[in-house]
Specification:
There is one protein chain. The chain is an alpha+beta fold. The chain folds into two domains: 85 residues, no CATH class; 68 residues, no CATH class. It has six helices and four strands. It has a four-stranded antiparallel sheet, with no helix packed on it. β1 and β2 form a beta hairpin. α1 packs antiparallel against α5 and α2 runs antiparallel to α3. The two termini are 42 Å apart.
């Protein structure tokens, strides 16, 4: 369950949660700060100026945002892990189209293979045709890709 393999939207959401955790950590550090307590009890001291002065001294509060980041990152990771365990691993069935350059025949291929080289290898073995490995003979059209949830076995269909 490597976060680098997550969909981009989950990665961005994780970073956003970590940023919120860091901000929450800074707020908790300010609430616990003796400078805030001093500024709130002494008349004539502007709390906003005291906060900006306190904020410029990172050595005073750096553990708090770090704890906020770690807490929210672990929480987000746990939620993602729970969702993966509950739903099972997401398997995608890819439907891709190829065209033979000489004959013009078009083929629709359904497969679980994510990478094109491994898909070409599987087709070449199934069809017993090494020309499938040559990108100049069997051209792949990425504009016609479809991705569907679920599991599918390798099927090769001639489109008429």
């Amino acid at each position: 369950m490597n976060p680098l393999n997550w969909p981009r939207q989950n990665q961005v959401a994780g970073l956003a949660f970590c940023a919120v955790g860091a901000i929450a950590g800074i707020i908790f550090a300010w609430i616990d700060s003796p400078i805030r307590q001093f500024a709130s009890h002494v008349p004539g001291i502007n709390a906003g100026d005291a906060f900006l002065h306190w904020l410029s001294n990172v050595n005073v509060y750096w553990p708090w945002p770090l704890m906020g980041i770690c807490f929210t990152a672990l929480l987000f990771y746990g939620v993602q892990l729970g969702r993966m365990t509950k739903e099972g691993p997401a398997v995608s069935c890819w439907i891709r189209e190829f065209r033979h350059c000489d004959s013009g025949e078009r083929y629709r291929v359904a497969s679980d293979a994510r990478s094109l080289p491994s898909l070409r290898r599987q087709i070449a073995e199934r069809q017993d045709d090494p020309e499938w490995m040559d990108e100049t003979i069997y051209r792949y059209d990425p504009n016609l890709d479809l991705q569907m949830a679920g599991h599918c076995s390798l099927t090769i269909q001639l489109i008429r």
